[in-house]
Amino acid sequence: MPEKLPFEFLFTPEFSRDPYAVYASLREQGPIFPIDFPPGFDAYLIIDHEHGRAALNDPRLSKDMQRFGDYFKAIATEDDILFDSNMLSVDPPDHTRLRRIVSKAFTPRRVEELRPRVQAITDELIDGFEGGAAELIDEFAFPLPIIVICELLGIPSQDRDQFREWSSLLVNPTFVPEEVERRRAAARATTAYFRRMCEERRQEPRDDLISALVAMEELTEKELISTLSLLLIAGHETTVNLIGNGVLALLRNPDQLDLLRAKPELLPNAIEEFLRYDGPVERSTPRFASEDLEIAGTRIPRGAMVHVSIGAVGRDPEVFAEPDRLDITRTDNRHVAFGHGIHFCLGAPLARLEGQIAIGTLLERLPQLALGCAEEELSRRLTGSVVRGLSRLPIRF
Ligand code: HEM
Q1: ipTM (interface pTM)
Q2: Domains, the chain
């Protein structure tokens, strides 16, 4: 079995710049590694397609945070209810129940109805670019999904920036002591905010998702708040990076950019390729072995954490021809960027809609789109977190 990968491994600049090269060098040693992440926990990382995809839907790997939640206890507060009572943190039958309730209020038809509004927000943001240059993350990739999810939920626009800060702290656990404290404060603030919001909607319902979920009266208060937090965080921390990483991939591969401009009908296919090639979620959320088990010959003791590197799975040469090449015409693209199995991303139709409109409109309206800084000046968001993306992406046009 390969040696244990140290905690720091996921935080090195080398890994952050190109995790795919690091995974390629590890591949020969095996599809699964013991890993010290988070420090002090018995954890494993899977990097191949066969075992990674299977693990994402293995009923022996539990998502039950309350049963195996020492990890979250280490980063949240005792009374913090953000993480342990939503669909991504429970197993069936609770998972089935919670997912069904939210799906009712979040149907593909409802998502399709958002198309004109997503287009209008996209156009407004591009109208705001000035002087032939923009910082694409702050001025475009971040505001678009956050405006959409806040409007869907019914969060007032003046509260958006506050949420951006909270959500960034919540999604990127670093285990540095001061960070843990700030994260706990963000968790408390988010919980209090949603509690107040639900109360307001209970008194005075509106045409939004919070009112719809409150009115169903099928969720406990704890489940309701936990679900809203999941939707808010999952609803924008990811799509920002589909847009950012996707645009960067095109700018680095001018032949693919030209091809997409020449054949805009390839856009849906291109979005799938961006998701595979450099997707927003580097690692799955953790799963816990509910019994002693074996994966690819490695014994996993009961209680151990199992992560799947979604990024590495998407570059598995056994499944993807020339995995390191961006190819927007790729067919049979079996990436797992939205997960797999019962926890498959509920927001995938919304993310795809936003990604297509955002990138399609940028290409249409900015024919001279180009990188606005030297490659070395691009800065990435923190590594080691679940999401992978840029903190800045200057463009010229
Ligand atoms: C679950 C990725 C956008 C809501 C997931 C999972 C992944 C994922 C990988 C499964 C995690 C696991 O099994 O460990 C993405 C990506 C997105 C995106 C790459 C953007 C490109 C969204 C949006 C929403 C959303 C826009 C909602 C508004 C959810 C929910 C779950 C989920 C509710 C939990 C589903 C369950 O447990 O049954 N997402 N997501 N996601 N996502 Fe997304």
Answers
A1: 0.99
A2: 7-396 (1.10.630.10)
